[in-house]
Amino acid sequence: MKKEIYGMLPLALTSCLASQATAQEKQENHPNIVFIYADDIGYGDLSCNGTKTIHTPNVERLAAMGIRFTNAHSAAATSTPSRYAMLTGEYAWRKAGTGIADGDAASIIRPERYTMADMFKDAGYRTGVVGKWHLGLGDKGGEQDWNKPLKPGTNDIGFEYSFIMAATGDRVPCVFVENDQVINLDPNDPLQVSYKKNFPGEPTGKDNPELLKMHPSHGHNQSIVNGISRIGYMKGGKSALWQDDQIAETLTDKAVSFIERHKDTPFFLYFATQDAHVPRVPGAQFAGKSGMGPRGDCLLEFDWSVGEILNTLERLGLDKNTLVILSSDNGPVVDDGYKDQAVELLGDHKPGGIYRGGKYSAYEAGTRIPCIWSWKNVIKPGIVSNALLCQIDWFATFAEILNVRLPEGAAPDSEPMLKAWTGKQKKGREWLVLQNAQNNLSVTDGVWKYLRPGKGPEYNKQVNIELGNSQEPQLYDLRKDPVEKNNLAGEKPELVKKMAEQLDKIVDGRYGLPL
Ligand code: NG6
Ligand code: CA
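Structure for Arylsulfatase, as requested:
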């Protein structure tokens, strides 16, 4: 239905028809797009950002081919809202029900919503998502029949192909879902899922710790799958269970074969890795290789996945006209709920780089994530940009690349920023609003950052992260104080007032001018 309502208006159509566009222009208007979207990998977790404690050569290779951003952000400090904002171009705090989703959440992005994938599909692209989904499936949360097609799902919001984990590695159901249907199910052993209560007789991490090969440090004590207790309860579906140490390989294979299948048509692939989210169970090739325990090993595994994608593009001769984007859904966390030695073996490694906070936090490490764009035909190699940018802008920026006008109301918070993303302009956004795990908002113009007072603890002891919540306003000068140590709110009440007003305006849907 949405196609009839909206439709798209290809601005370049007339000139293309008149054969006025050169072959080069046509190619540049329709590059292949591959997102490599990591989970919980922080600014300091990749060696391209200057980190010496880990070596991620394939990410370095990608950075050397393109542009690396030092001030790019996910829209939120946790997964579901970041992914929601990225795919819809709407700040997640505008929409209820976009917090960290349970594994049996209903589809959060409904078919009426025009997504980035819809846009690519309408522009003639083959569209696919492989990896961690975490945006819900099916009509009613908690009421899905996991043995039947899960509708609405990814295929209803623009992705022609999907091979996904419904939520996260630490949430049931621990099965792969292909084109909105759980794969490898045995009809004699149906899969049941509950986030309310356990199924009688099924072991849990809480009651049966003797069955565990990896123990939780906090939470994660419900159903046991492959010797790891998870969030939520599940029963049955044994033939469909994923093997945790093979997730990266399986997902990477699926991403590679999607590229191979569509090498002759423009394609858009959203490849969302499970690395380095908990539970961290690296493949045999990486186990023990980083010296930092499973978290570091999963960073190496992520780097391997990146290499596989780059090799595939080169092998198929697609490397020149494919825009490869690498980023992460939120900042890093060391202990996110399992005793996996991440804390003990961290050494001098700083997952968030110099930045304060981490995953869940309103401070910079919560959302200032690694970000690289590489597109040989268009972007000069080896550039670094300090522009203030956000993943939420990819949607409108891709519309710029495709030269299409977005339907009325689509991607309301997404700003077209092609010049900044391709390194042709130093300046990024005027304003960016960021969201932490408690839904407290901050606003920045890249120099000043104002954190609105809000509820919630200042510090999460379990994950050892400062969340940035405070009853008092906070104001930081990111240029002089990128680590957000000196709260200048008391000294600069006028500026606090202006920034607070600016934030209110954006929240109200009115967009402002520079200070
Ligand atoms: C938290 C989980 C954490 C992680 C996070 C979502 C507990 C105690 N902690 O609630 O382990 O799963 O949710 O992470 O359950 S995210 O990257 O997908 O947003
Ligand atoms: Ca995440």
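The chain has a mean pLDDT of 94.
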